[in-house]
Amino acid sequence: MKFLKNLLTTIIIVIILLIIGRWYLGWFSTPTATEKPMGPYLVAYVHFTWAYDKVWPVMTKLYDALSGAGITAFTGIGIYYDAPGSVTGNMLNSDVGAVIAPADSNKLDKKSADYKIQTITRSTKVVVEFPYRNSFSYMVGPIKVYPVMTAYMKEKGYNLETPRIELYDLTAKKIYYMADVIK
Fold first, then answer.
1. Handedness of CA 84, 89, 95, 101 (dihedral sign)
2. Which residues share a beta bridge with 43?
3. Which residue from 36, 89, 160, 167 lies 20 to 30 Å from 128 (Cα-Cα)?
């Protein structure tokens, strides 16, 4: 009898911890899409073709190269060109990198073999914010956000083929999911 009581107590504790963990990660949040001006962003990036969940080693290598140049970036960025499922997983195209602060722009090596540079101009975008808690937020966010973003864009008649941008703002502890407003 004592064994069953201890087992039941353990199961209840695990369930409560799972619920708290999901709440903390934003699983129970209801994201909303809005339109607002975003940018400009000066971005150091690497083009990457493979499954999107494999971008982190590429980003780490880029951040190491930037760090070697004396640049500390606190905002990561991913520009995802293909919808998962629309092409084979190892053929998904993205540009992944870091947003460079204006004060560090003169430290960028415009001829670097480690990265390319582009500016994302200020424009109105469909934006959905999601809280950044830890690395699991990168997995939970797309599951919660992209259906909301897609429904909003369909309702407005916007082009659904536009690339999706994910801005990982670790200072604000938010991930901004964005898409250009294009009819």
1. positive
2. 99, 118
3. 89
33-180: CATH topology is: Multidrug-efflux Transporter 1 Regulator Bmrr; Chain A (3.20.80)
In sequence order, the 6+-apart residues with CB closer than 8 A to the CB of 118 are 43, 45, 95
pLDDT at 1 over 90: no
pLDDT in tens, 56-113: 899 899 999 999 889 988 899 999 998 877 777 788 999 999 999 999 988 998 888 8
Task: Give the distance, in angstroms, between the CA of residue 70 and the centroid of all CA atoms in the same chain.
Answer: 24
**CB-based contacts of 75, cutoff 8 Å, min separation 6:** 98, 99, 167, 168, 169, 170, 171
Amino acid at 56: W
pTM recorded for the entire structure: 0.82
CA distance 57 to 50: 12
